[in-house]
Prior knowledge:
Elements: H1 3-12, E1 20-24, H2 31-44, E2 50-54, H3 61-68, E3 76-81, H4 82-89, E4 100-109, E5 111-116, H5 124-133, E6 139-143, H6 148-158, E7 165-169, H7 172-180, E8 186-189, H8 195-199, E9 203-209, E10 238-245, H9 250-264, H10 267-275, E11 278-279, H11 285-306
Parallel strand pairs: 1-2, 1-3, 6-7, 6-8
Antiparallel strand pairs: 3-10, 4-10, 4-11, 5-8, 5-9
Amino acid sequence: MSSLMVLGSAAAADFPIKEIKLVVPWNVGGSNDISARLISRILADEGVTVVVDNVPGATGTIGMTKVANAEPDGYTIGMGTSSTIAMIAQGLTPLKNEQFAPIARVTTDQLLLLVPKDSPTKDLTSFEAMVKKNPGKISIGTPGSNNLNHIFAVMTGDVVNSEIITVPYTGGAKVIVDLAGKQITAAVLKPSESKAQMDSNMVMPLGVFANERIKSLPNVPTFKEKGFNVFPYGPLVQMAYLVAPAKTPPEIQERLISIFNKAIQDPRFKAASEDGGAKVDSLTGKALGTEIVSVTNTLAIVGKKVFTEKK
């Protein structure tokens, strides 16, 4: 038995004995940051200190690289997303899924197409007309590039057979500020990172990139019901999940799963997530790892269809 395994066995019973760093590879104020900080507050009530460390850049891969290279002792974990998976699937980062030990899924989210409140378009039909009349002039902001948000932005143009301009940012918090300020025409974001601006009547959702409406936004139609096919290669859903460095001892991984899944299943977290349009389940450990591989395979196909074959 290696010294690291012995250390893991001995330390697991008392883990954690110090603060856990949770790396969020996006800006402060975005949906993933909001989820991480709520988890941190819930765990504080259990006597577990979790410090959120925002490390944005390169569609989440800078922060996740920090996690992959961290000491595998359980005291540094990260919040991966479908953006992380998309970058890995398309070979746009040296990172591999094998560099991480899956802990727990945080949320799954449907994505919205949003415009400023006084946009000349008030629904998907009028947005379609605007895009057709202004090929190559309509800008759609996304947190990151070559991820689900970017894929859906490109497909928004594809469904009306017109080219749009995609504008990548380092996080949803920056996208929503520029959208409300009319610096971009539209944006593809999660409900949770645009809810405050929707509630303040600063931005307006036009459609949901999903087959079903969002429970907390029952009046916002899906692209599908309006006759637009944004899933030509199969359904896609955004998700966030927690991982540790791959060589973290199994005993410590199990402690992390227990600690963080308990917080994710807490009624306070579930209520806040669902109010923000997200879904919460209990997918952990090996089952989560299997899901990550499945999503990676799907995004490898979709990324090639949407980006590579159109160049």
